[in-house]
Amino acid sequence: MSDATTNKPNGLVWMALAGVLAWVASNGFLLWKLEQQRKDLSAEISALQESTAGELSSVRKTTNAFSATNRETEETLRQQLDAARRQAAAAAGKARTDAVSHAEELAARLAAEQQKQQQEIAGELTGLKDATSAVNAKTTEISGEVKSVKTELDSTSAELKSMKGDLGVQSGLIATNGKELAALKARGERGYFEFNLTRSGQPQAVGNIRLALQKADPKRNRYTVTVLADDKKIEKRDKTINEPVQFYVLGARQPYEIVVNEVRKDRVIGYLAAPKAMEVASR
C-alpha cells in the first residue's frame, strides 16, 4: 500500500478530532455564557426589595433570552455533532469508534448541564415568587397596624379636653396620661417636651426653658415649681395635677403650658407644651 493510501485514513481521523475540538471549544463557550447568565440572574434577585415587579419582568426576559440562546446553540451543536459523526464514519477501526463515543459523551454532558441550569433558574423563580408573596403579606400587615394605631389615636383625641389655665387663658388640649400625650403629639399642634423633675435644687432644661421643683405634696397632689425663662424667674406655687400652668416667653404669641400628671415624693412627672416654632417671633 502506498504512503498516500496509508495517510488518507489518518488525515480523516485528524479532521474528525479537529471537528470534535471545535465542538468542545464551542461547548466551553456555552458553559461560560451560561455561568455569566446565572450570575446576572443572581444579581437581579438580590435587588428584589427595591423593585419586585421589575425583577420578575427582568428574570422573565433573561429566561426567554436564555431559552432562545439555548435553541440556537443546540442547533449549532447538533450540526457540528452530525458533521463530526459523518467524519468519524469515514475513519476506520478504533479511531472512528473512539471519536463517535467521545462526541456522544460530550453531547450527554452538555444536555445534563443545560438541564441543571434550567432547574436552577426554575428554583430561583420560585424563590422570587415566594419572596414577593412575603413582601405583600408584610405590607398588608403593616397597613393594618397603621390603621389600628390611627383609629386608636383618633379615639383618644376625642377624649382630650381643654380648660382654663392659671392665667385665665383657655388652654389647648391637655393630656392626663401617656396615651393622651401620644395623641397630642400626633396632632402636631404644639411642641411637647416630657419631663421627670426632681427636687435637686438645680434647674432642669425642658425645651427652651428651665424648671426647678421647690415642693411636691403627693397626698394633696400639689406642687410648687420655679420657671426660668428670658433671664426671669416665675414661681408657680401650690399647683394641682393636670392643671395648665401658663406663662409667656418673649416672642411667643401664645402662652407656654406646664401640665403635671403625677406628683411623687420630691418628684413630679409631666410635660411642657410650647407654641410651634413658626408661632414664635425671632429674638
Report what the structure shows.
57% of the residues lie in helices and 23% in strands. It is an alpha+beta fold. The chain has a four-stranded antiparallel β-sheet with strand order 3-10-9-8, covered by helices on one side. Strands 4-5-6-7 form a four-stranded antiparallel β-sheet, with no helix packed on it. It has a two-stranded antiparallel sheet with strand order 1-2. Strand 6 (222-229) and strand 7 (232-240) form a beta hairpin. Helix 1 runs antiparallel to helix 2 (52-90), helix 1 (3-46) runs parallel beside helix 3 (93-159) and helix 2 (52-90) packs antiparallel against helix 3 (93-159). The longest helix is centred in the middle third of the chain and has 67 residues, at 93-159. It is rod-shaped. The termini are far apart. The model is unreliable at 278-283 (pLDDT under 50).
Query: How much of the sequence is in beta strands?
Result: 15-25%
Radius of gyration: 41 Å
Largest sheet: 4 strands, antiparallel
The rough form would be described as rod-shaped
Task: State the gist of this model.
The chain is α+β, with helices and mostly antiparallel strands and 283 residues long.
Give the helix/strand layout:
Elements: H1 3-46, H2 52-90, H3 93-159, E1 161-164, E2 170-174, H4 178-187, E3 191-198, E4 204-206, E5 209-217, E6 222-229, E7 232-240, E8 245-247, E9 256-264, E10 267-274
Antiparallel strand pairs: 1-2, 3-10, 4-5, 5-6, 6-7, 8-9, 9-10
Helix pairs in contact: 1-2, 1-3, 2-3, 3-4
